[in-house]
Structure formats: C-alpha cells, structure tokens
C-alpha cells in the first residue's frame, strides 16, 4: 500500500512539474517571439516577467465561462478537460529510475494516447455548434490523423533498431552514436511531423486566423480555453522529450538531457517566429506523398539491415 502511495505521489509531483514547465514554456515563447520581432516580451510582472504565466492563469481561471446557447453543453464543457487529462497521462511513461511506472510497452501507450487526443479536438469543434469551430476541428482532425500514420512509420524504424517498446532501451542503444546521426532524414521528417501533430506553425490550420477565426476553440473562453492551451503546450513539451529519447541519446538524469529538451522546445518557438503558414493541400501532399513513402522505404531498409546483422 505504501509503495502504491509513493508511486501516486511521485506521479502527482511529476504532473505539477509538467504544469510549471508548461507555464514557463509559454513565457519563453512570448519572450523569444518578442526578440524575433525586435521588441520586449512580457517583462513587467515580477523580475523579467517571471510571474506573468501565473498572472495569466489566475486571470483565465477566474473569468466567467461563457457558452453558446445552441452548444451541446456537457460535451462542450468536458472536451477540453479530457484533452488536457490525455496530454498529462502520456507523461506517465517517462522511464525514471525510481519509484515510478516503467513498463515494456511505453511507445504503444504513447501512440494510443496521441491518437485519443484527436477526439478532444473533434468533439470540441463539433459541440460548439459553430460553423467555424466545426471547420477548424475537421481540418485539425484530418491533419492529425494524416501525420500520425507517418509518425508511427518513422517511429517503427527506431523500434526495429532497438527491437523493444521500452523507452529505457533507447538509451543503451545510443551510448556510442545517436539515432539522429544514423537516420538523419527520418529524424528531420519526425521533427516536422511533430510540428504538424501538435498543430504548430507552419502547420497550424486548426486555428488559421485569416479564414477560421481561431478554429475549433473559437467559442471557448476562460477555463476551457486555458485547458486547451495547456494541453497543446504540454504535448509540445512531451514531443520534445520524446524526440530527445528516440533520436538524441535516450533518457538520462543529466543536465545535458534537459538542455537537449530545452533546445527542441526552443526549436518549436523558433520555427513559429520564422516560417509562414503552409497551404492546406500542400500539407496533405507532404504527409501522404513525401513522408509516407520515405518512412516506408526506410523501414524496409532498417528491417533488411537488422536481418543482415543478425
């Protein structure tokens, strides 16, 4: 019983850590975007704007929640909560050396949770009963499931090299050489698929401002909007973590690991500050006509390599 309690408290601390990380990721993003656009980011509240995320959180969660008269109220109310919970559950597979859950099918669990995340967006868009929200939700769902296919295929190549779904093994297999160097084209495909999977610029069609008025979250205000926002940034942080585990030397409790994690998260922001939005059909062509063939060919190549070496 005490062991279970310890695990529970460990997971609780992990979730609180993730939430604080997400808060400061938003601050980092606003500051970096500020410097890219030659202005200051938030710098008034606290020292160098360090209290800004907390002020934003208090503001968002104390605002009055509005909802459209024709919305499907219960579903509309709970879909941000569900997508937020899903984006936090994925963090449970981090292979800490102590006290927490480490199980052999970590990658399958991650893929399942990411696939479930689509429903949050879809239901949020549909239950608002607003045309723009529905359109944004549909585009987002089409985009996410398109890129999930190539994401899974790219991931399979790494899994074939390791022959295990446990995230811990990725560290042992990358002691001498990162997978990033071994499969550079795949790593870059994975990087841009991550951007598409998390609905980030240049693939942020779920919230294309010019034509969709902010997309599937257009009817959400206060807490609901904050939860959608938190879910998005939590998944960005997790994707960065996952990229470092699979391609940049695996999980280790060193400072270097966290620097790599920070760098990949920074890359998300950097891309947002520099690249314009794609055209929607180009995005779909990229998934089905570029990434899918590339990842399938590489998969066959690595299977052949593994059999040959074996």
UniProtKB/TrEMBL annotation:
It catalyses: a ubiquinone + NADH + 5 H(+)(in) = a ubiquinol + NAD(+) + 4 H(+)(out). It is found in: Mitochondrion inner membrane. Pfam families: NADHdh. One of its GO terms (cellular component) is mitochondrial inner membrane. It is a multi-pass membrane protein. It is an enzyme of class 7 (translocase). Keywords: Membrane, Mitochondrion, Mitochondrion inner membrane, NAD, Transmembrane, Transmembrane helix, Transport, Ubiquinone. Its EC number is 7.1.1.2. It comes from the Eukaryota. GO terms for biological process: aerobic respiration. Core subunit of the mitochondrial membrane respiratory chain NADH dehydrogenase (Complex I) that is believed to belong to the minimal assembly required for catalysis. Complex I functions in the transfer of electrons from NADH to the respiratory chain. The immediate electron acceptor for the enzyme is believed to be ubiquinone. This is NADH-ubiquinone oxidoreductase chain 1. It comes from Orgyia postica. The gene is ND1.
């Amino acid at each position: 019983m005490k062991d279970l309690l310890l695990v529970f408290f460990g997971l609780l601390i992990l979730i609180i850590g993730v939430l604080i990380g997400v808060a400061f990721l938003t601050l980092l993003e606003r500051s970096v975007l500020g410097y890219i656009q030659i202005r200051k980011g938030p710098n008034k509240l606290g020292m160098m704007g360090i209290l800004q995320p907390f002020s934003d959180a208090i503001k968002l969660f104390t605002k009055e929640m509005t909802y459209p008269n024709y919305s499907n109220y219960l579903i509309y109310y709970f879909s941000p909560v569900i997508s937020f919970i899903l984006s936090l559950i994925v963090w449970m597979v981090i292979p800490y050396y102590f006290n927490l859950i480490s199980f052999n099918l970590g990658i399958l669990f991650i893929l399942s949770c990411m696939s479930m995340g689509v429903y949050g967006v879809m239901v949020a868009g549909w239950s608002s009963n607003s045309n723009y929200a529905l359109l944004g939700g549909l585009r987002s769902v089409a985009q996410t499931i398109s890129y999930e296919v190539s994401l899974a295929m790219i991931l399979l190549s790494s899994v074939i090299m390791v022959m295990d779904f446990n995230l811990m093994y990725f560290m042992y297999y990358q002691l001498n050489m990162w997978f990033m160097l071994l499969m550079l084209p795949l790593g870059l495909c994975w990087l841009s698929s991550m951007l598409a999977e998390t609905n980030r610029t240049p693939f942020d069609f779920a919230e294309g401002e010019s034509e969709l008025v902010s997309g599937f979250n257009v009817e959400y205000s206060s807490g609901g909007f904050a939860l959608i926002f938190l879910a998005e940034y939590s998944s960005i942080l997790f994707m960065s973590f996952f990229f470092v585990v699979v391609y940049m030397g695996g999980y280790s409790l060193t400072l270097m690991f966290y620097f790599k994690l920070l760098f990949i998260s920074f890359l998300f922001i950097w891309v947002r500050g520099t690249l314009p939005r794609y055209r929607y059909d180009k995005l779909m062509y990229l998934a089905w006509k570029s990434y899918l063939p590339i990842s399938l060919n590489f998969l066959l190549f690595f299977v052949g390599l593994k059999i040959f070496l074996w």
